Amino acid sequence: xxxxxxxxxxxxxxxxxxxxxxxxxxxxxxxVASTHTLETVMQVPMPLxxxxxxxxxxxxxxxAGTTTGSKAAVGSMLVNSTVMALGIPLGKIAxxxxxxxxxxxxxxRFRMFFFWMIFITLMLPVEVxxxxxxxxxxxxxxxxxxxxxxxxxxxxxxxxxLFRQFFMTVPDELAEAARVDGAGPMRxxxxxxxPLSKTTxxxxxxxxxxxxxxxxxxxxxxxxxxxxxTTVIGIKRMIVGGDAANEWNLIMATAxxxxxxxxxxxxxxxxxxxxxxVETEK
Amino acid sequence: MEKRVVFxxxxxxxxxxxxxxxxxxxxxxxxxxQAVWFSFQLQDAFGLKTQFVGLQNFTNLFRDSNxxxxxxxxxxxxxxxxxxxxxISLLLATMAxxxxxxxxxxxxxxxxxYAVAPAVAGVLWAFLFAPSxxxxxxxxxxxxxxxxxxxxxxxxxxLVVIASVWKQISYNFLFFLAGLQSIPRSLIEAAAIxxxxxxxxxxxxxxxxxxxxxxxxxVVNVVYAFFETFGVIDATTQGGxxxxxxxxxxxxxxxxxxxxxxxxxxxxxxxxxxxxxxLTVVQxxxxxxxxxx
Lengths: 282, 293
What we know:
The complex is a heterodimer.
Chain A: H1 6-33, H2 38-42, H3 54-64, H4 74-105, H5 111-120, H6 130-139, H7 146-150, H8 157-169, H9 172-180, H10 185-196, H11 198-213, H12 217-222, H13 231-238, H14 248-268, H15 270-280
Helix pairs in contact in A: 1-14, 3-14, 4-8, 4-11, 9-10, 11-15, 13-14
Chain B: H1 12-39, E1 41-43, E2 50-52, H2 56-63, H3 65-98, H4 103-111, H5 118-128, H6 135-142, H7 153-181, H8 185-193, H9 198-209, H10 211-228, H11 230-235, H12 248-258, H13 262-290
Antiparallel strand pairs in B: 1-2
Helix pairs in contact in B: 1-13, 2-13, 3-7, 3-10, 5-7, 7-10, 8-9, 10-13, 12-13
């Protein structure tokens, strides 16, 4: 604090509180809507205090889905989302850390070529190669499968760079000492690099968990079978038409369920989250 | 920068990069090459025959008023998303940087929308703005505004902009806050001693020193508006009404998946690839100066 200006401090708090309210408002209305019967939600205006249908609505969507839209149960969608949200970060971390290890700690033919190949994937997001990628997945028989949902998304330039950056800061003496002691490269990797990389892995895991959980276009393209829907896709499929045709109370309950796991990860692992966010973007 | 100490093995490094390279080739390069190849071809209506047509798909696109309209929509949409998102987050971050009490609480409450999927953000706002039952629509009606994004172009665009900005504020906020906290206090104190008030200090010292962060966020937000907002749009307006919210990515998806026009969709993909490449180059040229590899 440079100087004491009570007026400005009050203004700052006022702006921040207003910001927090604006950010929280949609969530609050969603939660309220998820605790009422459909009739109550359809009233204009809908009540702004929670109702008594919480258990009812949530058990309905978890076990059976909506009645007018998609009938897939949200329970199984949560399982699918979890598979994606865990499979993508674990796969990404695994293949990126070994390729970064190869690129930093070995000299081999085509080293820079491989490095650039990984780099260029940054410029090829799913959105610009929708149809051909879909064809590849279809040809490989990976539609409607967990492999199809996760494997194509685990290649990662940013994760490889992040580990490469980190390995560059590891003192050479460690590798030298390991070599003098007769440790081979894999021994060095497991016993020295992996333990040192733990914080980087944790930060990356948090960011990629959210990335995996929130995937939309990819599961939309390759899942046609209701049993393979992720939660985010499930919500979309529950919306069938105009305002009145949708079971908004159930859709909103599903939205809460879709938001809860990543939101908890962000709030509870805030330190890793911020670290991961800032570092992956460098 | 290279390591001085390296290991030697004839096969190990290849085995280590193999999984990453295999996925890159199968799911990135091969489809991208196919997209380029399809973009030079024309498929007949039944998908039986394909014919090499050179650049015809591209010239058709640039003569197609729908495609040009989609470019316009994308430009307006990205400018609105990027500027309003940056302005709101900068305001909040500046305020959060000032307050001592409750700073962590504010931060926690402001960052969680990052966890919300774009499609879910779209659904939440579509519900709030639902023409007949939405609570915001009801309030607006009280002010004499008739809100119906299902039939009104500008209101539909406003809806997707609001949902997209809402989701992105937390990201921008975190980066602005980090940027603000890295500005040396001594500079601000010196200005204060010289009699510069908070507003003057902000515009002459803080804002210029923050420009690398701002520029970085500008690029990130444009990329976000171009690509990641697909979920927002698909879950709410689906490009409509008419084509009022049909951004380029949504058109690629619509033409390719729904209308099954392979040639045109691929040509649009190729154009988008050039846009991504341009944006990535801009981003890295800037970052090169800040970070040393």
